[in-house]
Design a protein that fits this description.
Structural class: mainly alpha
Strand content: 5-15%
Helix content: 40-55%
Number of domains: 1
Number of strands: 3
Largest sheet: 3 strands, mixed
C-alpha cells in the first residue's frame, strides 16, 4: 500500500515542505502565478486520479473505491486564493442570497440547515406539515457551464483576467491515473 502522505500529492509530487524550503526565493513561484493570473490563463491544471479505498466497503468492487483528483500544491493554492477572493468580494458586493452557503467565507451548509430548522420550530401552527428538500449536486463542477460562469462573473464586474483565468481553469483539464497499489 502506498504511504498515506503520498496519496495527497498531485502529479508533480511537490509537498508543502518543499514549498516552505523555497520561502527565501518565493518570488519565482509568485511571478509564475501572477503571470498566469494577468494573462487569464491557468497553466497548472493537470490532475492525478487516485483511487482511495472506502472504509467499511468491499475493495474487490468498484463501489469500494473513491476516485480523488489531485492538483499540484501550487495549483490548489492558486485555486483557493481565487475562490477566496471571489467569495469575499461576492459577500461584500452582495452577490449571494441568504440561502447560499457553499464556497462563501463564514457560511456553511450546516448554518443554513440550522436556520431553516429554527424557522420551522418557531412556527405556531403545530398541525401544519412542512417539507424540506436538501440536495448535494454530484459532479456540479463538471456540469458547470463555462459560458454562464463567464457571463455571470463579467456581469458582476470581476476583473477580466480573473474571469478568463477561472474559465480557463475549468476548461481542458487533464487527468492522469496513478499507477500502483492505490
Amino acid at each position: 500500500m502506498v504511504d498515506v502522505a503520498l496519496r495527497a500529492l498531485g502529479k508533480d509530487k511537490i509537498t508543502i515542505e518543499v514549498l516552505e524550503m523555497l520561502e527565501p526565493d518565493w518570488g519565482k513561484v509568485t511571478r509564475l502565478v501572477n503571470k498566469d493570473l494577468r494573462a487569464g490563463r491557468a497553466s497548472m491544471k493537470e490532475a492525478e486520479l487516485v483511487l482511495i479505498p472506502k472504509q467499511g466497503k468491499d475493495a474487490s468492487t468498484v463501489k469500494g473505491w473513491r476516485p480523488v483528483s489531485l492538483l499540484s500544491v501550487v495549483s490548489k493554492g492558486v485555486e483557493r486564493a481565487v475562490a477566496g477572493w471571489l467569495g469575499t468580494t461576492g459577500l461584500v458586493e452582495g452577490w449571494f442570497g441568504q440561502g447560499q452557503a457553499g464556497g462563501i467565507p463564514g457560511r456553511s451548509t450546516t448554518d443554513i440547515v440550522l436556520r431553516m430548522l429554527a424557522e420551522v420550530e418557531k412556527d405556531e401552527d403545530v398541525d401544519s406539515w412542512k417539507a424540506v428538500v436538501l440536495m448535494d449536486v454530484k459532479g456540479a463542477f463538471n456540469a458547470a457551464r463555462k459560458d454562464y460562469v463567464y457571463k455571470v462573473l463579467r456581469d458582476k464586474g470581476v476583473l477580466e483576467n480573473i474571469v478568463k483565468w477561472t474559465v480557463d481553469f475549468m476548461s481542458d483539464r487533464e487527468i492522469f491515473p496513478r499507477r500502483g497499489e492505490t
